[in-house]
Amino acid sequence: MSLKEIIIERIQRDGPLSFHDYMEMCLYHPNAGYYTSEKNRIGETGDFYTSPHFSSLFGQMIAKQLEEMWEIMNKKPFTIVEYGAGPGTLCRDILLSLKRNDLLYQDLRYCIIEKSASMREREKKILSEKVSWHERIEDIPDLTGCIISNELIDNFPVHQVVMDQELMEVFVDYGQGFLETFKPAREELKNYFSELQVVLPPGFRTEVNLNALDWIRDIAASLKKGFVITIDYGHPSSILYNEKRRGGTLMCFHRHKMNNNPYLNIGEQDITTHINFSALARWGGKYGLPCSGFTHQAHFLQGLGFAAQLKKTEEENPGSDLKEKENVLYTLLLDMGTKLKVLVQQKEMNGARLSGLQFAQPFV
Fold first, then answer.
1. Is the pTM of this model over 0.85?
2. CA distance 294 to 102
3. Structural domains in the chain?
4. Deepest of 5, 59, 224, 284, by most Cβ within 10 A of its Cβ?
């Protein structure tokens, strides 16, 4: 039975699904979901690219920020937690960089939280030393260090809402095909906008990522001391709910082509939405993770000395292709670098300042 047939059967049995539950089945159904199947999703043969795919320089810069955090934390035993490590590229590049620091590396743990069994097997093919795999962050004891996520939260299932006479939630039904119905939004969704002091205009459609709030709550409860680095597509509330985005931000990716129809290619296409960094910062603060800073990926990398590291790489590899250099610069700084944002939060760090945030911008 195909995933489409499984979803239709559930709707016919239980009634319309919330869009959240529909998206969750599309992406994470145990046997047929987009992220739980064994197919390759990243790179030329997949559906999209991530920053680590383009150059090991990305991982080297993240490693440089992690090393600075370790120094700020008095060079004590340090744990890195990465959510959803994909093929393991970022982890590999970070560890290769940090291995040059003997004192840091000898007391380093690298924990990957990965729910997909097939993805774990891919990661284990290139990772072994210092790495362990976990189902939940609660399973990692004595967590002091840094939690990293790179393009993770934009794939969390979201609730879709539309402002009519009142706030309405989108549900998915099935007739001759998939169709949407609307029900009055539950209080949790209304309270989300109240907490952020956001009033949606009539006809405005958008997404609410309640899973992201649960995610940052769990991190705050598990992290004893250290930092959280979140790299993803998204905006603060003032930009996310701008009139230009009155149709929402949901996008689908299939074989490197974009569409905005989540009812196509079921189980075979990625479904993403931009995340609300204001919400992460707001709820993170409530749970004990105040904001250290917010910036574009390009500014984050520049603050860590990206240009100097690129020059050093060229000197160590004098025969490197100029075209390749231009592609790395364009992708990590000008293209994805301006679209991806970086939010850093901290716990029990007394407002420690980080090099990657020297060009941080205020929430507007």
1. yes
2. 31
3. 3-356 (3.40.50.12710)
4. 284
